[in-house]
């Protein structure tokens, strides 16, 4: 999913200061760019030097998103945008950190209920809800560990209710008050212990209200985990200090505190859509599909820690390792299961494509049937034209996937950048191989082929994207020859350069005797060249070569000779 | 009908300019600057060719097969239509972007089809008139009556360029002098006499 919200500022809130606009800092170099929202993360891409100043944050790290209508009017940009400087606050726990670090214990510190318990309906023992149990994704099929006391498997609804109630009871302290999502954890950890109990040096159990000694981890009476210095919290905190946000260090502010929120300010609108889509994405939780553990086989009982099962394969699980052939078979089975999961994920998006493809095929069939009807009455050129038009229209439909009409411009400008990058990529050397210039149609074909038949670009989109090169100051240019042929060339390519090359060539021909005896004075006139020869020499395509020769003719450098051998070009000796 | 090419045989062979051996010379050039230059070269070639062969009327139909328009070495020729375009350009005044009226289409006479035969003015009638006046002055024949036949075929004019000139061209030139008041022409057709003042 992409969004066309153009964000111009990326601002952040520091956790050390309250949300009182006192501690608001703008981050240098992150003041002008685009915000992107994908199903997995929010990204900021700077307009200038995007490679240096771009950041992203995983959606799964985001606790919630808020929308503030421009309370601070900061219209330092020249845009006439009527004070819609708007801030979407993403109250987040972890800004995106290098991927490998965000597995394991760090995960468990994310907003999942740590201290949720469910009461066994049989023996009323309070069991902990498994840490990998997520109320949002769990279904009746999810494997549930049996009661620790009586060994009876609990009904699914019991566990679900317990998890949800724990989650909701955890939520209320969050909103706009000065306390931030993890605030309660932090304050306790800091030792001030001004917690809900209010009793210095002791902690009351959240379940049975028994006042425990502060050094206890669990309630003496009911065994419920106490908040003080819980292992998970500890781990959470250290991990945060260890993995600061990548852009943190780039600001001038010392990197000593934890970021709790990120603010995106929009200068040119789009903030509402962005906020809505962000909320939608947060609800959909698509990232779970990637990280979700596969439906655990019975052998991998509930002790499995949360986290990506794919990335964190079997060795971590406390399952007894099978040996011998049985072990091999088991491993093979596991690999198959994993493969299945990966393939399943990969094809999920394809299914959406297939769904629309079906419609298109149906549409095409209808058209074919209609044209079949008309051909019975004698095919006319008119109906053929109409048919080809609608075929072109269909081509458009398939490429404008997932893009609303409003984001057309973004699509084109991104495509334009994409193309420029593709062309100038030294590894592929597309443009170099073609002698620095190639026709737009050739490029279109090559580019679409390089996409392996997925997300093909329609010709008109392609041309419009190419027309944007100049505006976007990209290192390639679209050029129209006199005949209307559109070609792609480097921005520093000029006609003068071509002419110089051609002249050098002509001079060369005057020095080299032709292969066969010629009836004219070759030392004076040299030899004629065809477009094919020029194409071969300069590695151009023949179409381009013909155009370049005609360009030189237009400038009076060359002149033509039409004969039975075809069109040939000579150095211009007609002009004295 | 007078023969289109004067009977004077070329004593020495005509020397073609170097561009005559330049193959693109025979292809109409699309570039206007190049084209203009090409036409000028053709114009001067045709004029010097006609002067060398004492040709006053050029029949394009005959000429396209002559060495003038047909380069056998290169196996290149100027097509009739293209030759016509060149002569057409020659007929126009220089102010009109033409070749300075160095040719004139002959519409009347035996040619019903237009733009087949043209006068090639390697000397325009005005220029011929000047040549005649110079000759008359040099030989002191002012006030003397001469027949046109004498001018063209007489022994006294053998050394002159206008000797053996096309009768029509001579008449045109004399008419120029009449208009200038430097001569008067009298007598019947075919037996004209001329008196220079």
TrEMBL record, chain A:
GO terms assigned for molecular function: phosphatidylinositol-3-phosphate binding; ubiquitin binding; zinc ion binding
Family annotation (InterPro entries): GLUE_dom (IPR021648), PH-like_dom_sf (IPR011993), Snf8/Vps36 (IPR040608), Vps36 (IPR037855), Vps36-NZF-N (IPR031558), WH-like_DNA-bd_sf (IPR036388), WH_DNA-bd_sf (IPR036390), Znf_RanBP2 (IPR001876)
Cellular component aspect of the GO annotation: ESCRT II complex; late endosome membrane
SUPFAM superfamilies with a match to the protein in the record: PH domain-like, Ran binding protein zinc finger-like, Winged helix' DNA-binding domain
GO biological process: protein transport to vacuole involved in ubiquitin-dependent protein catabolic process via the multivesicular body sorting pathway
Biased composition (Low complexity): 95-113
All copies of domain GLUE N-terminal, residue ranges: 1-294
Bias (Polar residues): 77-91
Transmembrane parts of this sequence: none
Subcellular location: Cytoplasm; Endosome
Alphabetically ordered keywords of this record: Coiled coil, Cytoplasm, Endosome, Metal-binding, Protein transport, Transport, Zinc, Zinc-finger
Function noted in UniProt: Component of the ESCRT-II complex (endosomal sorting complex required for transport II), which is required for multivesicular body (MVB) formation and sorting of endosomal cargo proteins into MVBs.
Annotated family: Belongs to the VPS36 family.
Protein name: Vacuolar protein-sorting-associated protein 36
Organism per entry: Penicillium subrubescens
TrEMBL record, chain B:
UniProt-listed SUPFAM superfamilies: Winged helix' DNA-binding domain
GO molecular function, one term: structural molecule activity
Sorted UniProt keywords: Cytoplasm, Protein transport, Transport
Chain coiled-coil ranges: none
Localisation: Cytoplasm
Keyword Transport set for record: yes
Gene Ontology cellular-component terms listed: ESCRT II complex
Membrane-traversing stretches: none
One of the GO biological process terms: protein transport to vacuole involved in ubiquitin-dependent protein catabolic process via the multivesicular body sorting pathway
Top-level lineage group: Eukaryota
Listed InterPro entries: ESCRT-II_cplx_Vps25-sub, ESCRT-II_cplx_Vps25-sub_N, WH-like_DNA-bd_sf, WH_DNA-bd_sf
Family to which this protein belongs: Belongs to the VPS25 family.
Protein name: Vacuolar protein-sorting-associated protein 25
Organism: Penicillium subrubescens
Organism classification: Eukaryota, Fungi, Dikarya, Ascomycota, Pezizomycotina
